[in-house]
Amino acid sequence: MTTSSTTKGMIACSLLFLTVACSSETKTGETTETKMEETTGTNETTASSEETTIEEEVIAPKSVKLSGKFLNEDEFGGSHYQVILTVDGKKEIIDTVMACDKIPASNFSQYEIPKTALSACGGWWAGAGDYFYADLKDNKVVVYQGWQDEEQKDKGYHWEVVKR
Known about the structure:
Blueprint: H1 3-26, H2 28-40, H3 42-53, E1 64-73, E2 79-87, E3 90-97, E4 101-102, E5 119-125, E6 128-137, E7 140-149, E8 160-163
Antiparallel strand pairs: 1-2, 2-3, 4-5, 5-6, 6-7, 7-8
């Protein structure tokens, strides 16, 4: 064999190895699970089935806050904000809207927000408004989004769940 044919042979072997390794990696989850069931026997399989039926207690968060973070102003003078949910210090972006200020608890009824809500924010811009509030259901944070438009025919804020 010459050097170039040796190199070609090594490259071909490497490609073959990578192909086999990658294809077994893709199936690892199924393969490992099947092999474990085959090798562990009935006692351990039963124990693992019992573990999955035990319900874990969900602990309510200590801190929940909805807020707006200014992003930029567009060429028409409209401001853009991210609506951010912060639960026990962990932040998550919920949406991007044109106006977003904190809604104090004393104003919740004005926006048809339940008294039990933990935090609320939103705002009105150019004839329409987007609003958000966070509440607890079964110790889990649920975020609702509502809207109003100056041309709407019905009343209310059309509240819908946007995050569970």
